[in-house]
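Standup notes, structure subgroup. Blocker cleared on the beta-D-glucopyranose input:
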Amino acid sequence: MSTERKVAQLIQPQINSFTAEDMARYRFGSYLNGGNGGPDGDEFAPAGKWLAYADRMWDASIGPLPGDEPVIPTIWGTDAVHGHTNIVGATIFPHNIGLGATRDADLLRRIGHATAKEIEVTGIDWNFSPTVAVARDDRWGRTYESYSEDPRIVAELGAALVEGLQGTPGDADYLREGRVAATAKHFFADGGTDQGVDQGDVNGDIESLKAIHAVPYPAAIDAGVEVVMASFNSINGVKMHGNRDLLTGVLRDEMGFEGVVVGDWNAHGQIAGCTVDDCPQALLAGLDIYMVPDDWKALLENLVAQVEDGTIPMAKLDEAVGRVLRLKLRLGLLDPNAAKPSARPNAGDYALLASADHRALAREAVAKSQVILKNDGVLPLKAGARVLVAGNAADDIAKAAGGWTLTWQGGGELDNSYFPNATSIYRAIESEASAQGGSATLSPDGTADAGAHDVAVVVFGEEAYAEFVGDRKTVVFEDTEGLDLLRKFKAAGLPTVAVFLSGRPMWMNRELNASDAFLASWLPGSEGAGVSDILFGKQDATGRLSFSWPADCGGAPVNGTQGALFNLGYGRSLADRSTMAALPEDCGYLTEGVSTAWFDLGRLDSGISAMGGDTRLPNLIGEGGGVVARGFDKDRQEDAREIVFGPGSTLSLSQRGDTSGDYRILYNLASQPAGPVTLTVGEREIDITRNFALSAGKGWREMIITEQCAPGLGNRIAFTSDAPLTIQIARIARQDMPEGAECSF
Ligand code: BGC
Ligand code: BGC
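Run returned:
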């Protein structure tokens, strides 16, 4: 192989940042779809399009090459972290935190197998899962990706998922029919960062850190895991992607890992002295594959030059390439008769997505993951009961599924129509109640007549998030909608059941006090029936906490009995109806009022809708009406958006309900507008062409819109550009400026 072809095996771009022609020309060893990526720019594309895309890239990667250069097919990696959840209609299993509560390794094996089959339906080869993080600080936004704070639980369940995904080494189906390559991630100590800051620093003596955070790896390696993903975090100030002692010394030499080490999303660019497109250090430290979503071309060229000038020894390159080739060999893809993706087992068998078997398995997982924290006797619900089902999460599948569901962040604009093969918690309660001769009334805001019901079930919880977007300063749950409903029903004399959806344990003292029974439901996914199975006592509650539940709201790490309200292992069976004393409700971190950010850190608030012309742009991503909005990295991944206006197109954002406050918009204009630009605020149209001409090329600026230039302000803003225009937006918020503040653009 030529040096360039070898280097290409180590380059992993994301779909939509390259074309089939690029694939044919450069022959990337692998590629990925990010959480917001789908074939042809459509993350909601039907499964058939994913499969067709896999074929297209396969074909592009196997065309003959000049000379006797060997032809090596490419492979596709994806984040099927709780089912194949980038795909509309796939089974959505509970996130890992829920699976941890089941303690059921056999269940995990079956989930891995089912997930692998659904992945194969779309022609994909490789899963970036399981996350075997040992989350030790619940303020971390990825806590729900962790099975437990206890490394032994993580090790056992992580290894089981690996076996389910890949099969057992030596068996005939290993990495073949019904199996895909797995990835243990993120090596290591992703769950150990200071204050739970995602991608942060971990401090401490290496052996003690290993004794917690590295424990799951030998188990995954024993199970045969083919790939390990390096972590974003640093340890004692050194970024993992550049840490030779750990990536090579510990992972390979000490633990004996012989498979592929893949990097995380541009994480090599965070090594001191590296940029995203120039980083020999990572390969030298022990990385095999660079995950380089967009800047693949420059990185590839630089690596080739660095091999040629001796910065990277050829032997080092060969080792890494050898590992990638061995993975492909094991996947059966180096066989001259290897079939293209659509001709492989399970490919195109769309009935496998959310098949009855897979949904039954997910329902079993949900039921086994529910943890009853309190039950004064109201559970199980009685046959014939008239159930009032309240709370904004009761009939919201996206909220029950959490992050990494159809989109990277999940939630937001994803209403139930995006989930054709799923049952909301309310629907499941409704069907069980009716089957038992009772009834259920859906009343998200709780205005239904309490007197006409026997019991209230309030379903509420965290909004969906992923990665650093979910980082919190405390474990306070600010949203009091669920609490208010529980209190209101209790005051009306109705017994109350709280069903709390969350990606982590949180301070729930007030909600516990206001409920007669409390279910920690985690992020169950597509099968609401698993929740109703426990509520109605169709099976006993066997879920037990895999994390300590905090007594205090501050968020200091609780990993053991000290500071715990409920210890790891806690969870009641339905027969345990002992009463619980009232809990203290004081918390110094409770603040008043809600956030007014329409868009921040890459997230659109759920009360805001963004439109390009008449087309919805979910989470301010997508295309419509001549506007293209895509993720843009300002300080962190996709914490901003780049909006490209076609001639005469409009981007508008509007807020539902009552609103107030001045507008503050953080934006950057790379170049001068080529034609007039208008800002519509409420009913006012403001020509901002000149302002934009002045701010172009000056970096990030804040636009402030007050009553002074836009009396009434209203609940809608829109930008219209007559000519092509590109603008980046990082934040849109409403906040009162001091009296008399002037507009500025
Ligand atoms: C995440 C990984 C994920 C990768 C690809 C990263 O940001 O940390 O867990 O596998 O992106 O989506
Ligand atoms: C995620 C990707 C995601 C990206 C933004 C990463 O951190 O892991 O999968 O799509 O950020 O696009």
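Discussed briefly. The pocket of beta-D-glucopyranose (ligand 1) is lined by residues 32, 34-35, 79, 128, 185, 264-265, 467 (CB under 6 Å).
Next: hand off to the docking folks.
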